[in-house]
Design a protein that fits this description.
The complex is a heterodimer.
Chain A lengths: L1 E5 L2 H7 L5 E7 L2 H4 L5 H17 L5 E7 L5 H4 L3 H5 L3 E4 L3 H10 L5 E3 L1 E11 L2 E6 L15 H4 L26 H11 L34
Parallel strand pairs in A: 2-3, 2-4, 4-5
Antiparallel strand pairs in A: 1-6, 6-7
Chain B lengths: L8 E6 L3 H10 L8 E6 L7 H9 L4 E6 L10 H19 L6 E5 L5 H18 L16
Parallel strand pairs in B: 1-2, 1-3, 3-4
The chains are: A alpha/beta, B alpha/beta.
Chain lengths: 222, 146
């Protein structure tokens, strides 16, 4: 899932400067699961903004709404009436959600209330970790299901850098060395021979370096 | 009602400990400030961040969360969950421009009425020093005022 975290209240007040009637719009998918932009967080951030507004003497009118998915036009349509009533929208969706709302309501300011951080998983309660860099050319099958592009701080593709200490990453000592994990996993599934293959430099044009990506499925187009 | 110059303190009290302590404080004729409004909760672990914020939004000048002593929660770890949520809410209040001291968690056993009375007195004193808040939603449609 997409993992995001909220911006601070002072930052949000600065972003919303000049607007009186605001809709805080939540998203019921990824950002709900990572506790950043679901119905509950909409309520919390709205309350905090109202309190901050009153402390600063701003006359903020804040509406709250959460839809199932901000990145899907079917659900975006449900916001039409609520968005019409306000001066601006503070989207608690991911970066894709914010842009989808802004594209649909071209004459309404739409702001991001979250910082979209990464594609990851809930590793343990309250801890989310990055697992995929969306490089566009998945190599997980070659590394025992552990991604060196994402989880190795140096993106090493042909073995460890040699800097790890007691299986901890040299760059981020709070994280395990990805290459230690890759080796242990390949050994466990009897595929250490894969490590003998030299990996050539990746084709980075499949990633963001190749420009904004688009997938077209002709079989699904109308 | 718009609580314009409100110094009301909302006390969320766990049914299994602090609420009983508050009750006992009454039976023992212990004095504590009249601006305390006790709300009984099945466990402090039931309390969400929104509850605390809504209390302030509604005009409370302070919020005290009274749960069981650590290690004695009827539901195992509800009071520890509440502690983390209180800490998080404190950060949010601070960001919003309110003194985080206005929100406090205390641990009170069912038989410790004197501690309950002392804790709410201290809270009332803290709020008195900080002064009243004027956050009640008089004209705003959202949130009920105290």
């Amino acid at each position: 899932m997409i993992v995001a975290e909220r911006k601070s209240i002072p930052e949000l007040l600065e972003i919303l400067q000049g607007h009186k009637k605001i809709l805080v719009l939540g998203c019921g998918t990824c950002v709900t699961v990572c506790l950043a932009g679901g119905e509950r967080e909409v309520s919390i951030i709205s309350s905090a903004l109202r309190i901050a507004g009153r402390v600063k003497g701003l006359d903020l009118k804040i509406d709250e709404m959460t839809i199932e998915r901000q990145c899907d036009n079917v659900f975006i349509e449900q916001t039409a009436e609520a968005i019409q009533k306000v001066d601006a929208v503070l989207s608690l969706g991911c970066g894709a959600g914010v842009q989808a709302i802004a594209e649909r309501y071209a004459d309404k300011p739409v702001y991001a209330g979250l910082n979209t951080r990464f594609l990851g998983i809930l590793e343990e309660r309250g801890v989310w970790t990055e697992k995929c860099a969306q490089c566009g050319e998945c190599v997980l099958h070659e590394y025992g299901g552990i991604c060196p592009v994402t989880r190795c701080a140096k993106h090493e593709m042909n073995g460890p850098c040699g800097g790890s200490r007691e299986d901890r990453c040299e760059v981020r000592p709070d994280r395990p060395c990805a290459w230690q994990l890759i080796y242990k996993r390949l050994k466990a599934i009897g595929q250490t021979d894969r490590l003998k293959q030299i990996k050539l430099p990746r084709d980075r044009s499949a990633g963001l370096d190749g420009g904004p990506r688009v997938i077209i499925r002709e079989d699904h187009r109308i | 009602m718009c609580a314009d110059s409100n110094s009301t303190i909302v006390a969320f009290c766990c049914h299994y400990c602090a609420y009983a302590a508050a009750d006992l404080a009454g039976s023992m004729r212990l004095q504590y400030p009249a601006n305390i409004r006790v709300i009984r909760t099945p466990c402090t672990g039931r309390l969400e961040v929104e509850f605390f914020l809504k209390a302030f939004e509604g005009g409370a000048a302070g919020v005290i969360v009274a749960g069981c002593e650590e290690g004695s929660c009827h539901f195992k770890d509800g009071n520890l969950i509440a502690k983390r949520r209180v800490n998080y809410t404190g950060k949010l209040l601070s960001e919003a421009g309110i003194e985080p001291e206005r929100l406090r968690m205390v641990n009170v056993s069912a038989g410790n009425a004197p501690l309950f009375a002392r804790a709410v007195k201290e809270m009332a004193e803290t709020v008195r020093k900080l002064g009243p808040l004027h956050l009640a939603a008089c004209a705003n449609s959202t949130g009920e005022s105290l």
